[in-house]
Amino acid sequence: MRVLVTGGAGFIGSHVVEKLLEKEAEVEVIDDLSAGRKNNLPSNVKLNVKAVHDLSPQEVKGYDVIVHCAAQVSTFYSVDYPEEDFKRNALSTFHLFECCRKGNDNALIIYTSSRSVHGHIPEGKIADESFPFNPSTFYNTHKIYGELLCKIYSELYGMRFVILRPSNVYGPRQPYWMSGWYNFIAYWIKLALENKPIPIYGTGEQIRDYTYVEDTARAYILAIEKKEKAIGNAFLLPTGRGVTLNQLADLIIKLTGSKSIKQYLPPRKGDIMRFVGSYKKAKEILNWEPKVSLEEGLKREIDWIKKEL
Ligand SMILES: NC(=O)c1ccc[n+]([C@@H]2O[C@H](COP(=O)([O-])OP(=O)(O)OC[C@H]3O[C@@H](n4cnc5c(N)ncnc54)[C@H](O)[C@@H]3O)[C@@H](O)[C@H]2O)c1
What pairing do the DSSP bridges indicate for beta strands 243-244 and 207-208? Predict the structure, then answer.
């Protein structure tokens, strides 16, 4: 099996690459290294340093599977720079799918969307894939656009897609060196290890559903293995457990033995107050379920960041 992973030098992408190699797939990566790192990848994986929107149809030929992970990943960056986000997310995805239509319309394409397409989930409810799209930033609007492209390319040209919607992923290789928001767990761990204040935008009562990166990456493998049933579907990849930012910060402070304090900052535009999701559909069709608890996953990420620092 030949697989191309866009954004494969990044956080989630590099774990997907690792799992594909365990399955003895032949893996190649395209990544512009805007957030990813070459040393996230084993040396035997071919890395083409290039932006997705510069790919040609010729360059996607011959792959059985194309895993699309490359993206600008910060929702708050997208609020500040909507046009840049449009180019790097919506337009890049469109360009990739066009290359596939012209150069390899038979490949299985795994499109990485996000749980954030569902927006705020009211108290007492747990989101599933039938919940409506409810974007709150340009980032998730562009993820929805990508999902709609999957529908159109499959209806018009018979192309085959599986859509995955990861939920607040954390674990080793999360870029702790960047102060953005999507990677805030890694950033908070670094600050906690340095006994520096942990910034929280808003009250800290925002609820998220955190998934360990190896669990998320395993879903990509299952989507390929179970493609007959999976094609044409979208799958949420959460744990069903909601945790507030305050609880998460306290847990990180406890697990690192830090003297850090929480520092409250004004709320940010587009932030949602609550997301908790169900993995029932992923369990039924992919036989996927999260295995690593938040406490265990955080310990592994803390150990990794300690070694890196
Ligand atoms: N991290 C999360 O919590 C989370 C949650 C839901 C969805 N996602 C999605 O998962 C995917 C992977 O995110 P991640 O957390 O691993 O982030 P990441 O920033 O570590 O990975 C993205 C990778 O894509 C590369 N990249 C970005 N734009 C590119 C372009 N135009 N051309 C080529 N390469 C490009 C970056 O260098 C990086 O290596 C993204 O599509 C993201 O939107 C992430």
Answer: antiparallel
pTM above threshold 0.85: yes
Tell me whether residue 88 is exposed, middle or buried, using C-beta atoms within 10 angstroms of its C-beta: 0 to 12, 13 to 18, 19 or more. buried
Tell me which residue of 208, 105, 106, 117 sits closest to 164, measured CA to CA.
117
Q: Is 287 near ligand 1, meaning CB less than 6 Å away?
A: no
pLDDT confidence of 238, banded at 50, 70, 90?
very high
Q: Which atom of ligand 1 is nearest to the CA of 211?
A: 3
Mean pLDDT of 15-40: 97
Active site residue 139: yes
**48-78 per-position pLDDT tens digit:** 999 999 999 999 999 999 999 999 999 989 9
Residue 180: pLDDT band with limits 50, 70, 90:
low
Q: What is the amino acid identity at position 64?
A: D
Q: Can you identify the CATH homologous superfamily of domain 2-170+211-240+277-292?
A: NAD(P)-binding Rossmann-like Domain (3.40.50.720)
Q: Is 83 exposed, middle or buried (0-12, 13-18, 19+ CB in 10 A)?
A: exposed
In angstroms, what is the span from residue 70 Cα to ligand 1's centroid? 5
Strand order in the sheet with 46-49: 46-49, 26-31, 2-6, 65-68, 108-112, 160-166, 234-237
Tokens standing for residue 43:
């040396």
Distances (CA, A) of 76 to 72, 149, 208: 11, 24, 16
Task: Please report how the helices 213-225 and 11-22 are oriented relative to each other, as an axis angle in degrees rounded to 10.
Answer: 50
Task: Report pLDDT for 179.
Answer: 74
- Please state the domain extents for the chain: 2-170+211-240+277-292
* Cα of 72 from ligand 1 centre, angstroms: 6
DSSP 209: -
Q: Which residue has the CA at smallest separation from atom 43 of ligand 1?
A: 73
